[in-house]
Amino acid sequence: MTSLRDQIKLHEGLVYDRHAYGKGPGWDPELIVEKAAKPSPIEAAGYDLLSDVELEIFYHKMLTIVEEAREVWQNLSISDIILAGDMSTAIFTPSGDLAVASTGIHFHALLNYAQSKFILKYYRDDPTVGLNEGDIFFFNNPLAGSTHAPDMFTAMPVFHEGELVAWAEVGGHQGDCGSVSPGGFNPYATSRFEEGFHMAGVKIGEKFRIRKDMLDYLCGSVRNPFVFAVELRSRVATCLRMRDRILREVERRGPAAVSGGLRRLIDRSSELASERLEQINDGIYRSILFNDTIGAEKGLVRIPVTVIKEGGEMTILVQGVSPPNGKGPVHATWHLVRASQAVYLFAYFFRGLMPNVGLFEPLTFLIEGPSVANSPEDVAHTEGTIISAAVVQCFHIIGSKMLFDSPFRENVSAPFSRNMVALVFYGSNLFGYRATGLTSTGNGAGQGARFDGDGEHSTGFYWASMTDAGEVEEFDARYPFTIIARGLLGTDYHGFGMYRGGSALIEVSMAYPNPVVMTSWGTSDVISHNPGLFGGYWGPPNPRLTITKNDALKLMAEGTLPELTHHSLAAEQRLDGEYAFESSSVNPKEFEVGDVFLCDTGSGGGYGDVLERDPESVMTDLREGMISADVVGRVYKVAWDEETLAVDYAATEALRSEERRARIARGKRFDDFIGGWLAQKPKEHLLTYYGDWPDPRVPGYDKPFWGEHD
After folding, report:
1. CA distance 650 to 653
2. C-alpha span between 598 and 596 (Å, rounded)
3. What's the rounded Cα separation, in Å, for the pair 105 and 334?
């Protein structure tokens, strides 16, 4: 019997199971793409020393260690993104595989391992480097396994009486990396050499101390040396705390039992992941998203995903992707696309299982390259997360459909919001030091609607819900600008459906009391990345909005400043000034005192048919300002008394019945529909970087469904 996997045809001349670049100084793609390594001798020796009950206790002890470490780092940090939770603390096996993690950003936990594996293979026995107790390693090179240069990781080997028993690793978004643009994001970058320094597994300290020359080098490479030094020291202190706690367990249980226990945790997760997959229907599932930018320039990019689920295994195929363009930083790597899938897998698909690398063992990733999803080495990579996130969103839609007819329906939802407008700032704050980085507004994104209820408003960050948007008063001291308004995104800015998506947090900020250099990065200015599910509406796109030469300071002095919401500013333009709706990714520019800029991360998509939404829930949304009267009647087809807001149920049923008949009347036979559908094509200037239309890799493609090949 032919397997489902055998029905998939890969394009000749392209790579799928590896990176589109080869080995280089400090990186080895073969190490990055491999699954869990073979157990080291100490792992094998201690594999069976813990009973099942002891293993469960051991896991919770290890989890306590990494959770404590996460709190230690956040309490030592002065970086807004770290304080908001864009970081991870993790324990790895002696052979370099993730066993236990505590993270505010799920995929970071699967991006730390490459440095330890490279060190073990290439540096451990090198007389000029070596690997010893007290060594400290630093790593941020995306080619060597990191996300992008602003994400920085520190690793420390844990030895007991000269034997390596584990690795303690800490990583997160530290911010400035010496890029051409402040904060590390350069929307105009055309190569990685415009994106700051790149270090791959460099030993920066020995005997538990950071070397002064390395510290000076790193601090001299960035705009915010004081913040950089504080964060680097805080990461090392966190590694030391984890090391101390791990060694206490070694003293209690023995080194082999600890190392072997870490390996068993990985294997146990792998077993449970396979068992869950066995309970889900086999099949081939597809989803597709498009991106609207390659950086600072507009351009359509295609990201399709196919999932083949068979027995206890699953293949995630990213094929038919637009080619690399070399014109902007929206290029992902093979390992980033794979690691990013933890955002969906850990929180939804495999919810309740131990989140470690074992959950990826039953999975095979085939990511077409060279492409924007699996790019060559010298293109710019800083915004590759836009591409990897599109794969996650597709996977989320597919996974929800897979789980709907399974024992795990409670994990079904529309995707978390991933529309992104992240403000990147540079200037002096009220503490008097130079601050540069991202705002944490993104940690207030809207949740996608669930199979049994509405999505939550402003509930967390797309990459991980265990994050925090922080307090305005603290930001006013740390940021080089002032937040003057904060609240939910506003009327009609979420996905409609039987259940509606959650609305996002919006911040209105002002350059005050000093001018500030500001840029931003993101996507979804025209095309949303927030799909609805089972007929639910998508969350809308959200371009960047700035208002310069405005009268906000004057109105504040008079006490007549109007309520500042996305609707009042973008639609009603209640401030006098120069309004600019711009790309999310723009070059840095200086804003004068009083200039205003808006930031939000978008709202979640809806779930199910809008005609099935409870009319009383519709009216609640109207009362709370979540939707307009127009949406009540035009979208939800609800009739109501405009004075009392009471629902007229008979009239509502009549409106909805009429709309269902109208839908049938608008419908077409497939043969009539597909001819017109295939004839549609975007304007040529939007396809400059797309590849061949409609399949970027197949000239003259004319099949009725994408992904079909002779």
Report:
1. 5
2. 7
3. 19
Last residue of a domain, one of 274, 302, 326: 274
Whether the Cβ atoms of residue 206 and residue 136 lie closer than 8 Å to each other: yes
Element (H, E) at 318: strand 313-318
- Torsion angle of the four alpha carbons 400, 405, 407, 409, in this order, in degrees rounded to the nearest 10: 40
Alpha helical stretches, state H, 537-636: 552-558, 566, 615-623, 629-634
Examine residue 370 and say whether the peptide bond preceding it is cis (omega within 30 degrees of 0).
Answer: yes
Cis amide prior to 513 (ω within 30 degrees): yes
Residues in the chain: 710
Return the pLDDT at 466. Answer: 65
Of 255, 274, 293, the residue that ends a domain is 274
Domain extent for 197: 39-274
Instruction: Write out the two tokens for 1.
Output: 């019997």
- Structure-block tokens of residue 444: 């207030």
Q: What is the DSSP string of 11-30?
A: PTT-B-SS-SS--BTTB-HH
pLDDT at residue 1, rounded to an integer: 61
* C-alpha–C-alpha distance, residues 663 and 607, integer Å: 19
Alpha-carbon gap, residue 432 to 430, rounded angstroms: 5
CA 3 – CA 284 distance, rounded (Å): 11
- Phi first, then psi, for residue 35 (nearest 5°) are -80, -165
Please give the DSSP secondary-structure letter assigned to residue 579: E
| Tokens describing residue 375 | 């790019």
Mean per-residue pLDDT for 120-135?
A: 97
Asked if residue 379 is part of any domain, the answer here is no
Q: What is the mean pLDDT of the chain?
A: 92
| Least confident interval from 66-70, 73-77, 439-443, 617-621 | 439-443
pTM (predicted TM-score): 0.95
pLDDT tens, 437-483? 777 777 788 999 999 999 999 887 787 766 777 778 878 888 888 99
What is the per-residue pLDDT for 479? 85
- The CB density around residue 526, as the number of other CB atoms within 10 Å, is 15
Strands (E), 493-533: 505-510, 516-522
Count the domains in the chain: 2
Q: Coil, strand, or helix at residue 250? A: helix
Count of beta carbons in the 10 Å neighbourhood of residue 657: 12
